[in-house]
Write a structure and sequence with these properties.
about 55% helix, about 210 residues, 5 strands, Glutaredoxin, globular, single chain, alpha+beta
């Protein structure tokens, strides 16, 4: 009789697990809906967007989690990082991000730029200091300066600022899932939990 009772109990727990998982994250608490939704860069896929600032220590600590998470993404999911222009003081880094991207070296310098600020304590907070950093990595300083001051970079930073207003976030890192949902470190409580919330929202989008 005891064995039968234990079997029934375990079966009930296993059957309840999916329901518990669905209730693990709450709309308005762990994430919030973006209304109206913001058009993504790839409507044919589920796009996950991290809005960050190089000077943000929380973004720096979240970076290893992002790197690990992106290693196993299915083809139906796209991840992108967008430098925030939410604060006027952050635009220097946003311009640097897009200048490096135009040069084709952003991916190579992304981690180094983070490390220079947060591990080496370098003050990369203006054009001259950032241009010097780029040159020290072996890349063309003058070309970087040209891109940094270009119309293309200026337009992209302005575009970011407008889109961020639609996202409605107040800090970084902020994560937007498919232009429909906003979450972040403050809402999640920890980086580990933030990744789980992102997975939860992505799974919902993949199910349609």
């Amino acid at each position: 009789m005891l064995k039968k009772w234990m079997f029934v109990l375990i079966s009930c727990l296993l059957l309840a697990t999916p329901a518990v998982a669905q209730q693990a994250f709450i709309d308005g608490v762990d994430y919030q809906r973006i209304d109206p939704a913001v058009k993504t860069s790839d409507p044919g896929k589920v796009v996950v967007t991290e809005v960050f600032w190089y000077g943000c220590p929380h973004c720096f600590r979240f970076e290893p989690y992002v790197e690990k998470w992106t290693e196993t993404l299915p083809e139906s999911v796209v991840f992108e990082q967008v430098p925030s222009a939410l604060n006027p003081h952050w635009t220097e880094h946003a311009r640097a991000f897009y200048a490096m991207k135009l040069m084709g070296v952003q991916e190579q310098l992304h981690g180094k730029f983070f490390n220079a600020i947060h591990l080496k304590r370098q003050k990369l907070n203006n054009l001259d200091s950032i241009a010097k950093f780029v040159a020290e990595q072996g890349f063309d300083e003058q070309l970087f300066r040209q891109h940094y001051a270009s119309f293309a970079v200026d337009s992209q930073v302005r575009k970011n600022s407008k889109i961020e207003q639609r996202y409605g976030h107040r800090g970084v890192p902020a994560v937007i899932v498919n232009g429909k949902y906003l979450t972040g470190a403050a809402m999640a409580g920890s980086n580990e939990r933030l990744i789980k919330i992102i997975d939860f929202l992505v799974a919902g989008e993949l199910r349609g």
